[in-house]
Amino acid sequence: MDSATPVEITIPAMDVSSPLVDLGLQNDGAMEVPLNGQNAGWYTGAPTPGALGPAIIAGHVDWDGQPGVFYRLDTLRPGDQIQVRRTDDSTATFAVTSVQQYPKNAFPTNKVYGAIDHAGLRLITCGGEFDSSHSSYRDNIVAYAKLVNPRP
Amino acid sequence: MFAVDQSDPLSVANYRYQTQAIGRRFMMKSRNVLLAIPVAGLALLFGPVAHAQQEAVQIQLLDLNGTGATGTAILTPAAGGALTVSIEASGMTPNAPHAQHIHGSASGHDFMCPTKSADTDGDGFVNTEEGLPAYGDIFVSLTTQGDTTKTSGLAVDRMPTANAEGVLNYERTIEASALPAGTIEHLKDLHVVQHGIDVNDNGAYDMEALGESTFAKSLGVDGIPEEATNPATCGMVSGAAPGSVPAGGVETGSGPTSGVGTQTLLLSGGLVLFGAAGTVLVRRRTRRQ
């Protein structure tokens, strides 16, 4: 598919539908995160969902004690579908290929963000043990998906 | 002017040990991204993140004309509309310079790498003029210094040299002013071609193997061996990646129990920051949730 800004993500298996906010990089080079728990965000420095390469969408697992938009990301199974509606009125449909959990201090940057020869999608949230001394989860959950149907 | 100095130690030294930008990015140490609140305010000073196309494309360089050479080129948009080109190829004619170019078009014409059928004169090699209809005109000459326009297409004295093992490393950032209009927007329509094959394996580009380069001659340059101008590799875009790879993991959780104040640490982005005042607003909003 051509590049087009994504507008909304729908994940039936998680009963999730969310508008997408823009995410850039922080000054320290880390990715920004959405400013609330219920909106997912897409990383504007990556290919757009449906275009060649890995598109990146991040959402909170929880927010102020409440479940966030990607609260159930770790329950996704291979084959589960993800739809991303785009500004050109097309919808890119992806199928989950795997769901992985990584320590943040050993995040596999190349595997998640590296060049790929197809239109892919990575959904990212937090997981694992919550380290209250750092107010941070120790791990990230990453769901990998592949474009299966570029509906115009 | 097209003399092939195989023992040019300077070129070899200069380019042999260049590391690939993408390798450096991927090797960046992961780190935690907790930011202190005052740093968040600084995001305002740097402004919001630009919305331009920032993705990088990866080009798999494949053997052309039976050279057995392969490689990877990465085109990465850089600050101010510049373009960083990284190439690592192996199996190239050792100790010899290799003219290399970005071919293609920013006007939507769908050029591609030629197949064997492009060898219309049947000499067993797809030469430069036979390849041109498929891969398009020279878009950018990937020289090591100076001019990068089409006119430097055969400036072999400024082209990278493969080392004694036939490995060629190249990296250069070409400023926006030196790029044809539309380059960054059409990265996926471009491809890379490298030239230079020592067909008779005698360690030099010479006239004995394939004679004189008719392509060079057509440009008014005499005495260039066809070996020096025949394409050795060609690659089209085979992959894409973020142009700026985020560092480390992603802070996407505030904790299973209510942790007011945590979010202010986590949300140090450039989206809705108003400095210290904004921080207070975020706190209030999260309290109400």
Quick recap of the structure?
The complex is a heterodimer of chains A (152) and B (289). By secondary structure, chain A is mainly β.
What does this structure look like?
The complex is a heterodimer of chains A (152) and B (289). Chain A contains one helix and ten strands. Chain A is mainly beta and 152 residues long. Chain A has one domain: Sortase, Chain: A (Beta Barrel), CATH 2.40.260. In chain A, strands 1-2-3-4-9-10-8-7 form an eight-stranded mixed beta barrel. In chain A, strands 5-6 form a two-stranded antiparallel ribbon. Chain B is α+β, with helices and mostly antiparallel strands and 289 residues long. Chain B folds into two domains: 217 residues, Sandwich (Immunoglobulin-like), CATH 2.60.40.200; 39 residues, no CATH class. Helix content of chain B is 22%, strand content 20%. Chain B is built from nine helices and eight strands. Chain B starts with 8 loop residues before the first helix and ends with a helix. The N terminus and C terminus of chain B are likely disordered. At the A-B interface, strand 2, strand 4, strand 5, helix 1 and strand 9 of A face helix 2, helix 3, strand 1, strand 8 and helix 8 of B.
Order of helices and strands of chain A: EEEEEEEEHEE
Mean pLDDT over all positions of chain A: 93
User: Oligomeric status of the shown chains?
Assistant: heterodimer
The shape of chain B, in one word, is elongated
